[in-house]
Amino acid sequence: MDFKKSQTLKNLARSFAGESQAGLRYQLIVDMCNAQGYQAMANEIKKLAKNEVAHAKAYYTMITDRLGDVNNIEIEAGYPFEGTKLQDALKFSVENEESEANKIYPAFAKIAREEGFPEIARRFTLIADIEKQHAKIFKTLYKKLSDGTLYSSDKATTWQCSNCGHTASLTEAWKTCPVCGSKQGVVQIKLK
Ligand SMILES: [Fe+2]
Ligand SMILES: [Fe+2]
Predict the structure, then answer these.
(1) Of the candidates 94, 108, 81, which has an alpha carbon nearest to the alpha carbon of residue 16?
(2) Long-range CB contact pairs, 155-164, < 8 A, 24+
(3) How far is the CA of 93 from the centre of ligand 1 (A)?
(4) How many whole angstroms from 14 Cα to the centroid of ligand 1?
(5) Which of 71, 80, 146, 154 has its CA 20 to 30 A from that of 9?
(6) For 111-149, what is each residue's pLDDT tens digit?
């Protein structure tokens, strides 16, 4: 099938748009985290934002490596503007990542295979696997923020200050680091 006329080309363009937005949406969440004193959470989400920008670039170059410059690709897609509160934003992120991982990218991979682009299909599948991991991270953050267990645990666990490296095994992380004075939001979050 001619790549220029394929559905796969449109799907790549849509994926590029979606990933670009995810990168920015996560940056907005990073800003919210920082504003509320959750610096360690901000750093975790910053890594995810960087991943999304890398995905956007991968999709972009899957188009331009094959076609060079393309003046315009029409796509139709709807985008949400919700999650202005941190907790909601984390929840929406879980949902978005899960829908990319379990529905959208597997469907795009299937179409790419059917249209004769196995290399593109493979990369949709690999990126879907990453989004699955992202969904897990957001789910953990959402759950811990919601039930107030970001910095507490049933049994003693090792907490580490991401600023000075101080560690201690406690059921609840310190409010203020005894070494450097950083606030609790700087303590690394347990993602597993
Ligand atoms: Fe992504
Ligand atoms: Fe993601």
Answers:
(1) 108
(2) 157/190, 159/187, 159/188, 160/187, 160/188, 161/186, 161/187, 161/188, 162/39, 162/40, 162/43, 162/186, 162/187, 162/188
(3) 11
(4) 12
(5) 80
(6) 999 999 999 999 999 999 999 999 999 999 999 999 999
Is residue 186 within 8 A of residue 161, CB to CB? The reply is: yes
Give the environment of ion ligand 1: residues with CB less than 5 A.
Answer: 19, 52, 55
In the prediction, which pLDDT does 30 show? 98
Which residues hold their Cβ within 5 A of ligand 2, which is an ion?
97, 131, 134
**131 CA from centroid of ligand 2 (Å):** 4
What whole-number distance in Å separates Cα of residue 65 and Cα of residue 58?
10
Contact (CB, 8 A) for 41 and 150? yes
In one-letter notation, the amino acid at residue 97 is E
State whether the Cα torsion 90-93-94-95 is positive or negative.
Answer: positive
Q: Whose atoms come closest to the Cα of 133: which ligand?
A: 2
